[in-house]
Amino acid sequence: xxxxxIFPCSVLFLNFGFKLFVGxxxxxxxxxxxxxxxxxxxxxxxxxxxxxxxxxxRKEVDIQLMLGGVLIYVxxxxxxxxxxxxxxxxxxxxxxxxxxxHSFISYAISLFIIYITIQIGVxxx
Length: 125
What we know:
Layout: H1 2-21, H2 28-56, H3 63-92, H4 96-123
């Protein structure tokens, strides 16, 4: 299980680091602001992995089940994007409690989705 987490996490942190550090001087506020938007990257990484898993097993999976799963992931991505953007906006307006609250919600959803995605990948091995 731990090995299954290493590659997705390394890709995620490379993406985060490149967006944050390449071509700019980073202040602590920039780091926190980027952290508010990280759940969006997590959920889209999950969608990418789900697409790869579904492509790999397309003959073995019921089409309705596959479409239902994709719909759930897209809805999760919409909610995560909404809460992440709200968190960023509230951080810019110095509403730190609400920024943290919405960030917590977006992290909870995105981490749950990536966990489920990794479990699907482990089961398909």
